[in-house]
Amino acid sequence: MINFQFHNPTKVIFGKNVESEAGKEIKQYGAHKVLVHFGGDYLQKTGVLDRVHRGLTDAGLEYIDLDGVVPNPRLSLIKKGIELCKLENVDFILAIGGGSAIDSAKGIAYGLANDFELEELLMGNVTTDKIAPIGCISTIAATGSETSNSMVVTIEEYKGQKNLKRSYNHDCARPLFACMNPELTYTLPVYQIASGASDIMMHTMERYFTNTTDVDLIDRMSEGLLVAVRDATLKAVKTPDDYEARATLMWAGSLSHNGLTGTGRQSDFASHKIEHELGGMFDVAHGAGLCAVWGSWARYVYKINPARFAQFAVRVFNVPENFYNLEETALKGIEAWEDWCRKIGMPTSMSELGIEPTDAQIEEMAIKCVATGNGSVGFFKKLNKDDVINIFNMSK
């Protein structure tokens, strides 16, 4: 186990009807005017937005709405939000939704607290530990952005390059509070449930596949989370109003990405970097994109440490262990993951995802991918441009 720091100050308010408490929470931080940030029209249709507005008014707070968030949130809307907040003297940002709404809110909060262009932060040219106060109401179990330090945003154009999906991570971006009501996820389409659950699995798996030794404590915690999500997803896609299944997924989403399962080890995140390029170029659902490429990544790298893949197979997917051939066990574990993906309606290749990149597009994605890591991505096995191209081709 290697040295680590773990800091997660987000207050989690979990259970039925907790979204109504957001106003009282915000008032405690001395705020006066709130930007309510969200996307789509489901919040209006379900009455969630009205309940939130009522809670803000009852707490003596003014508010202004900014909708328009889309999957793979866009920098252009974030910039619009920054200007709106400055114009309206907003001093607190409340996101309602999933990772896209929360990440977009984080971008607005960074923009309010700093005087640089947000592109420079996302491209790694500047850093900051300053951010305006944020709270959130989760309506999707997926990215875990409600308690994470991460923000992922699509830059539509930067110095001649288009649709760059880039991230910035800092503990200052952890929301002050997160209201999490599993019932708010009932109306999600099955595809979105499955895509979100896949992202939860992947956030843990990106940390689980490590070459750091003596990490059995977090291994066991991660395996328990993965098994619980594995089973809860199968229930949730069949029975939309299964509260316990939805509660498991919602809480697991936070636990998988709040940093806990990465303590004491070197995480990988190559699959995420690879998928970010798919998302940037083809605007695919993040979890579905991860499912499309992970099996190919796994087959490309598993020989670096077949014992770790075999452990995953046995402990998470109940694959019988072949003590004489760990590689066989490892490969069966990868197959078991892909079988699970298919059961919940997720793709295991780019063609199943509905995209067929050209060789030129694959090369472009690979170049952009490794540029985020100064020429390579990943730590389980460091991948250069040619490696990423090979993985993309395997995942066709």
TrEMBL record:
Domain Fe-containing alcohol dehydrogenase-like C-terminal per the UniProt entry, residue ranges: 194-393
UniProt keywords, alphabetically: Oxidoreductase
Keyword Cell inner membrane in annotation: no
Pfam families to which the protein is assigned, alphabetical: ADH_Fe_C, Fe-ADH
GO molecular function terms noted in the UniProt entry: alcohol dehydrogenase (NADP+) activity; butanol dehydrogenase (NAD+) activity; metal ion binding; methylglyoxal reductase (NADPH) (acetol producing) activity
InterPro entries given in the database record: ADH_Fe/GldA (IPR001670), ADH_Fe_C (IPR056798), BDH-like (IPR044731)
Coiled coil: none
Residue intervals of the Alcohol dehydrogenase iron-type/glycerol dehydrogenase GldA domain: 9-182
SUPFAM superfamilies: Dehydroquinate synthase-like (SSF56796)
GO cellular component, one term: cytosol
Protein name according to UniProt: NADH-dependent alcohol dehydrogenase
